[in-house]
Amino acid sequence: MLNDIYNKRIIELAGNIPRLGRLPDPDATATAHSKLCGSTVKVDLKMSGDTITDFAHDVKACALGQASSSIMASHVVGSTASELRELRETVRKMLKENGAPPQGKWDEIKFLEPVRDYKARHASTLLTFDAVVDAIGQIEAKAKQPDTVQG
């Protein structure tokens, strides 16, 4: 039943999203959009080496997109690029392949597990994870490019 995915904890997370807004000088900005429901999440990211040092986001999403963004914002600073890529894959498998939810600091994602039965809700749930991984990729790509010489 649809009420299962909008459980009390999902509503609490959606109503208390940390780190809302934009960073003044992000290393990268990425936007993820669900064509199906119209939800959009825009993230700003700062990194030092392989570690996230600052994060902000603009969340215009349903309760599921808001809840997953809330979980991301609570734990993203201090996380590494590889950890966040692995997290996105774990959440994707949880929703699409009956995989187990993540453990440790990301264990609140278990409250999104009932979404697996509602394929139309997968995209909005994954938005924040996709946007963060996209932003990390942008930062890594910039770091690999040689500095352009100003003339």
Automatic annotation (TrEMBL):
SUPFAM superfamilies cross-referenced by the UniProt entry: SufE/NifU
Ranges where the NIF system FeS cluster assembly NifU N-terminal domain occurs: 6-97
Taxonomy, superkingdom: Bacteria
UniProt xrefs under Pfam families: NifU_N (PF01592)
Coiled coil: none
PANTHER family for the chain: IRON-SULFUR CLUSTER ASSEMBLY ENZYME NIFU HOMOLOG (PTHR10093)
Protein name as it appears in the record: Iron-sulfur cluster assembly scaffold protein
Species: Bradyrhizobium campsiandrae
